[in-house]
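Lecture 7, part B: from sequences to assemblies.

Below are the input chains for today's worked example.
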Amino acid sequence: MKLTKSLIFASALAALTLGSMAAQARDLTVVSWGGNYQDAQREIYFKPFSEKLGKPVLDESWDGGVGTLQAKVKAGAPNWDAVQVETEELALGCADGIYEKIDWAKLGGKEKFIDSAVSDCGVGAIVWSTAIAFDGDKLKEGPQSWADFWDVKKFPGKRGLRKGPKYNLEFALQADGVPAADVYKVLATPEGVDRAFKKLDELKPNIVWWEAGAQPLQLISSGEVAMSSAYNGRISGINRTEKKNFKVVWPGSIYAVDSWVILKGAENAAAAMDFIAFASQADNQSKLPAKIAYGLPNKEAAAMVPAEFQAELPTTPANMTGSIALDGNFWIDNSEALTQRFNAWLGQ
Amino acid sequence: MRGGTPLRRHLAAALMLMPLVVFLGLFFVWPIITMLSEAVSDPVVVKTLPATTEAARAWDRQTPGAGALGQALVDDIRATTDDQAMGDVVRRLNSAKSGFRTLMMKTLSAARGSTGPLDLTTVDERWKDNGYWEAIAAAAQSRYTDRNLLAALDYARNPQGSIEALPPAASNNADIFKRTFVISGLVTLMCIALGYPFAMLAASVTGWKRQLLLGAVLLPLWTSLLVRTAAWFILLQDRGMINSTLLGLGIISEPLPLLFNRLGVVIAMTHVLLPFMVLPIFSVLIGIPGNLMPAAQSLGASKLRAFWHVLLPLSLRGVASGALLVFMSAIGYYITPALIGGPRDQMISSIIAFYATGTANWGMAGALGIILLAATLALYAVYHRLTSDRALRV
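Predicted structure of the full complex, as structure tokens:
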């Protein structure tokens, strides 16, 4: 009898504790891509905003995938508020209704931003580029193009590429002689996709696949690969912090806009909107290139960047010659089918 | 309790079990059932596009779909206010035929931005292609589907409805399943080969020596899996400790390829899973009376023969449970093959993760999960049969 009573008491206590834990308010949680990029964001956005707010701002990192966000929103009460997403995650999630609508009045109007940074569900955070990277100290005469990247006789050693079809099919077509401007036109046909996979076949034995943005830098540093595709900001970042001499090959690179979104039903949606407005202000945003070399979607902020940092940005006119804008529409249509094919190809 | 009637005692026992039952039900049984039903249920089109569903079931698939189904689709779009439900429809259709994403985006805004009849072929040329309408008609057939289960095994239905195999260039899940079981089997064998002698040694000594040996097994178990995998990455790379030592000693002239291949995966997974082999064998070995081996030898058996006929059969129960633990854990491995392995060493979990987190295709993730569960249960049945034949079970 006594045992029964104490059991009931204990479970009641447990229920109470669990209940109070769940009821406790969560602080604003901002999610970005980790590594030295997020370190920079913490310095210039998260910490100052937390001081302004008078409350802690939590930051987490993720590796992408619209399924992750989909699961959080569908489960109800997502534990993330503001998330930085890639081009197709923005389009997919917006179509699926898993983001809150952006209050453009708080941001000072759409015309303050470059066109590709404006949408109903998101605000551009950075313009970034995926390009060939190599260690200038190890390779004096480095590669100039994707054709060189494919040429393992001229440049012996392994190659690093991000695991997945996105970017790699575009790179393969360029290596096969397709001009940058025609890449998506060719890729839109089944023959073009076959051609890209055939070109990837050539390089397959020499490819080391990476998944997180920090990996290609380690692979190049350790000499595991001779060159790799990598995010441009990380390359300038490692050059500054670790005194490396990594080089970026701009022609043939692909640039894209990453955006801030707010998850639907997020507890701190209002604070998240304020945070995004804070991070989009010209004087705050213009501090970013000094820390990491990403282009800025706020036009005023871009104009405020000191000349010494301009040379490293994907948005600088000299770096834009021969580069391609990522075609988000192509990838939201074809991502699933092409990834399935890519996985099958990878395992063969 | 002492004075309690049998009924009360039963009640108390049931109450004590309650937390466990609730926990298992909520966090084990229910998620599995949800994932499994997700694999075969396909209600989104039927539920969200009722008029289109009706029209699609009556459609002969020969006449242009835009004429037969177009207006019904427009009406359904205008009647739906739930963005998330419409998102589910678009994702489901794009998964069957690439292109629906952008097509539906255009169509949604055109339909919502107008009233009255709307000719969809003027919104987008692609609506003239009956392939898109066939995809809608196929999704409208029923609230249940076998397409995920078929796709998980590299099959699909053609437009006529009969099942055909997909070419290996398009889908090779079967290979990845086979590879998953081969790698897990290899790791299990390696664990037996290393773990059995180790457990024998640990059981044969006492005091601080035994503590030290068991500590050596347990300590890695308390370290994060990711850390141990990353440590192996550093050890195995071309300029890592193993290769630079061997190069320095002049044993090899070229670095051994230890990373991004099957060898590296097996080495790292064996290390990670070894404790699950050592501990069950050890616990069985210390329960075997120490005088059995000398007794066998006093009857004239050699040491090897005594081991083969006495110790090994008695300890096989430990090996069997260790092997089961290691094999079952190895099947679900994801991080280690992803970081250490090459493209041909990826196991099925990484494909499941792609569908679950990458494309939010829960149906496909669930279907692959079902196949993995079924294959594992079948293997377990075989294993159970083998071990019970030799009277090894408790």
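Note for the exam: The longest helix of chain B spans residues 6-40. Keep this in mind when comparing with the next example.
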